[in-house]
Amino acid sequence: TGFKWQQTEDNEDYVDMRDMRRVTVRSFKKKVLIDIRDYYTDKAGEVKPTRKGISLRPSDWQFLVDNAEEISRKVKEWEASEK
Amino acid sequence: TGFKWQQTEDNEDYVDMRDMRRVTVRSFKKKVLIDIRDYYTDKAGEVKPTRKGISLRPSDWQFLVDNAEEISRKVKEWEASEK
After folding, report:
1. Can you give the pTM of this predicted structure?
2. Which single residue of A12, A40, A43, B57 could bond A8 by disulfide (Cβ 3.0 to 4.6 Å)?
3. For chain A, which ranges sit under pLDDT 50?
4. Chain Cα centroid distance, residue A51
């Protein structure tokens, strides 16, 4: 359904969540990171990362996976309410 | 398994992923957001958000949920390699 890994010049793996928002899997200092981040195109036409984003350790990612159902439930609760 | 929703003074729902890193569900301009962000304690002892984080729309969150297995597979691939 449109999910497609791509690679940066540094051989990092990323997938577009939507325009200019990526999930990137890479390693830094021998630690794997899952980065969820916004990008922009600079004047030279190069796509660059912005400060809007967060790097997750695999254990953080696992936290999201393990609790995805409960988080989705809470999102639906907020969507249904007049909050 | 330690998962526990808590509430801010503004009635936002959050859960600690780990020390000073939260998932928060809240609404902003009538749009629900899932915020994954680092926090810090200021000199007054108050817990405040940092710039390290990202606000996801429900559709972004759903993208992560829908593709969690594939992203986890890629993480394991990186962990297994010498990248």
Report:
1. 0.94
2. A12
3. none
4. 13
